[in-house]
Amino acid sequence: MAKKPSTQSSNNAAASNAESANQQQFVIQKVYLKDGSLETPGTPEVFTQSWKPEAKVELNTRRNAIGDNLYEVIVTVTVTATMEEKTAYLCEVHQAGVFNVVGFDETTTDQLLGAYCPGVLFPYAREAVTDLTAKAGFPPMTLSPVNFDALYARRRQQAAEGTSAQAQGEQADTKPDAASD
After folding, report:
1. Is 10 a domain residue?
2. How many structural domains does the chain have?
3. What is the pTM of this model?
4. Which of 117, 116, 68 is nearest to 95 (CA)?
5. Is residue 30 part of a domain?
6. Which residues contact 2 (CB under 8 A, 6 or more apart)?
7. Which domain holds residue 144?
8. CATH number, domain at 88?
9. Which pLDDT band, with edges at 50, 70 and 90, does 159 fall under?
């Protein structure tokens, strides 16, 4: 004969469920490469020259609400390597993730999606750029770490000052973003 749970343990379970429903939750649902491309218009000629490129790195983040408390965050990295004003390669990576964010106030949710999530995704994007450039026969392009908390704080400050800061994007240099989505 099956034993019936006591009323006390049923009440404890109900209280525990109610308590966990009010708790904050941050869950990484999925990390994936949304898009990755490498163009090498300077090959094979570039391989006959001494490798001393000028590299331009552009970094951009964006997010999309895809359901209740569910968000897609995308980090886009574009690297353009030029030699003698000719493009050796153009590498673009869109590293994405799906994040479940529950129970946080609007400011904290914004900070999680604008700073923390890009910080989670960037190492994957950096690895993809390194792999793509190496597989194309070039020395691997290893990107420096990025402080997304500082970038987020700067965007917030610029927005508060009324400057023309991008709502979700940030570049590693001062040139306009040449990436198109």
Report:
1. no
2. 1
3. 0.75
4. 117
5. yes
6. none
7. 25-161
8. 3.10.420.10
9. confident
